[in-house]
Design brief:
56% of the residues lie in helices and 0% in strands. By secondary structure, it is mainly α. The chain has one domain: Orthogonal Bundle (Globin-like), CATH 1.10.490. Helix 2 crosses helix 6. The protein is globular and about 60 Å long. It binds protoporphyrin IX containing FE.
Length: 149
């Protein structure tokens, strides 16, 4: 199709109705800094995870391409969690994490590591608190459910 033939919407004759769409509010993901910041954060965070004797055991023997893929998935998930996208097309978090046997203590170690690296990205304090809350709220999905005795 030649560029000159681009279709335009027919006029309604109602100027108010033709006012440009209201720009959407920046999401928490935007406020954090979007893809660039999130990818930089994930590199630092996962380096920290792999240096942590407790957390690294869960990723033992993982080769570089698999680690890069995992980082990409986690960036996509963060985007979803922070309202930057409507869907996460990966696996259900509960399904992935329940078989790993992650305890509350391990989740806390993870969260401490996560927040340590998040702070180095110098987000605004409100943004930091909002992200921290969203991650804390995932505890139920990540920590293994012990059968009640
Ligand atoms: C709020 C906390 C966490 C979030 C948001 C999170 C997020 C994710 C995501 C998005 C994936 C990829 C899922 C997919 O394949 O589509 C994943 C996989 C994985 N996570 Fe987590 N995770 C969290 C906590 C943890 C913790 C505490 C551990 C262990 C210390 C852990 C270990 C793993 C492992 C080993 C995989 C790969 C599983 C596999 O591919 O079989 N995660 N995580």
């Amino acid at each position: 199709m030649d560029k000159g033939s681009t279709k335009t919407a027919p006029s309604t004759g109602n100027n108010e109705a033709e006012v440009a769409e209201k720009p959407s509010e920046p999401t928490l993901y935007d406020k954090f800094g979007g893809n660039v910041k999130c990818e930089a954060f994930m590199d630092k965070f996962m380096d920290g995870v792999m240096k942590c004797p407790t957390l690294s055991t869960y990723h033992e023997g993982i080769d570089e391409p698999t680690m890069e893929l995992l980082k990409e998935k986690r960036v996509c998930y963060m985007k979803y969690l922070l309202d930057g996208s409507k869907f996460y097309i990966g696996k259900d978090l509960k399904e992935v994490h329940q078989p790993l046997g992650i305890t509350d203590e391990i989740f806390d170690t993870w969260k401490t590591e996560f927040l340590k690296h998040l702070k180095t990205m110098r987000p605004n304090i409100k943004v930091l608190r909002a992200i921290s809350k969203k991650v804390t709220d995932l505890r139920e999905d990540i920590v293994v459910k012990m059968p009640s005795v």
